[in-house]
Amino acid sequence: MPHEHPAKQRPGSIAATLGVLAWWAVLAAALWTLLGWVVRTDPTDADGIESTIVFAALLSETFAFHLGLGVTGVAAVALALGRCRTATAAVVLAATHLAPAAWLWVRPTPAPAGGPTLTVLSANIQAGNADAERLLEFVDRTSPDVVVVQEIDPAIHRGLLDGLASRFETGHAALIASPYFSQATYTNLPMRAPPSELMIGSRFPVPQIDLEIEFEGRLIRVLNVHAYPPRRLRLVADQRRSIPEFAAWARSAMADADATILAGDFNAPFNTGHLRELRAAGFREAHDEAGRGRGSTWPHRGVLRYTPGIRLDNIMFAGALRCVESRVLGDVGSDHRPILATFEIVPDDASSPSLRPLADRRRRRRGRSG
């Protein structure tokens, strides 16, 4: 009996192999997703193998949208191969990752009440690569009340520093020079105290600028944030340990301030496990509240800028504020894009201690000191 030529069996074999690979791809994606959902580690124990697990979970949450796109492609392949169960599983998994991003495009955004607004602009200028003129154009166009800048090098960015100083010449400025973690903060609003330096991190502390401003009779604390970048496992552990320090500062600040704002480069999206202590402390994220679309801020240089990005830069807030607008601004020559958020004061609520007016808080502080 004549034998069938092997080439005639190849199409079926390829289809079967692709079907199996599609199923395993969906299973792997589901397990990676589950890892991001269930891993909850103590930041004091984030070393060794635990750092590897924490890093894998962080990647799962950070690149959830990208995973959803990949699984969508797997669903299309499975459907073309007639693997309906695999395609159905892939579609369900993809929907869990893509639906939140889709909602940010169609959901209604808050309507301003028409009262005074507080605007904050944050920009990471990548230690010398940003275009000072472009950033100053955004400052002129948006007229922010507070500007926080990360990775500003006084030796390289003298033009930017002079430009910001001239625009806030009636106000206040603070500059901290530190390798890779230099910061600058500017405001024209009245200040309750001079800017102070908060050191975050145990292995090598990183300075953050703490600002106390008065706005519409309220005390607002603003922290210029630059968290550790999770470029390697040791830094993942350092970052994981540092976030509770930010949360501890925030809880202390909220005890006396009417509202607190954390703005800057967190090197992690707001919805990840790394930042859950800040969510537990009552912080909300401006873009999640009032932005449109995914709000990606990084990467914005090189080939990767043509891929779907992630939001590493955030403006978080808690207390007597309501976010009415959040935007990601255009290219300033950095690998990060600047972000802008506009807030209104929440109307007084005498039953809520977190919304006491500034005068009440001052009386309370004087009573404690007396």
Describe the protein.
This protein is an alpha+beta fold. 42% of the residues lie in helices and 22% in strands. The protein has helices at 6-38, 49-62, 64-80, 84-106, 132-142, 158-167, 233-256, 276-280, 286-290, 358-369; strands at 117-124, 146-150, 172-176, 183-187, 191-200, 206-215, 218-226, 259-265, 284-285, 313-319, 321-328, 339-345. The strands form 2 sheets. A 6-stranded mixed beta sheet has the order 3-4-2-1-12-11. Strands 5-6-7-8-10-9 form a 6-stranded mixed beta sheet. A hairpin with a 6-residue loop joins strand 3 and strand 4 (183-187). The termini are far apart.
State the main characteristics:
370 residues, alpha+beta, 6-stranded mixed β-sheet, 42% helix, disordered N terminus
Topology:
Blueprint: H1 6-38, H2 49-62, H3 64-80, H4 84-106, E1 117-124, H5 132-142, E2 146-150, H6 158-167, E3 172-176, E4 183-187, E5 191-200, E6 206-215, E7 218-226, H7 233-256, E8 259-265, H8 276-280, E9 284-285, H9 286-290, E10 313-319, E11 321-328, E12 339-345, H10 358-369
Helix pairs in contact: 1-2, 1-3, 1-4, 2-7, 3-4, 5-6
Structural class: alpha+beta
Determine Rg (CA atoms, Å).
24 Å
Level of helix content? 40-55%
Order of helices and strands: HHHHEHEHEEEEEHEHEHEEEH
Q: Strands of the biggest beta sheet: in what spatial order?
A: 3-4-2-1-12-11
Number of strands: 12
First-residue to last-residue Cα separation: 106 Å
Uncertain parts: 1-9, 350-359, 361-370
Largest sheet: 6 strands, mixed
C-alpha geometry: elongated
Structure annotation, total helices = 10
Overall mean pLDDT stands at: 86
How much of the residues is beta strand, in percent?
Answer: 15-25%
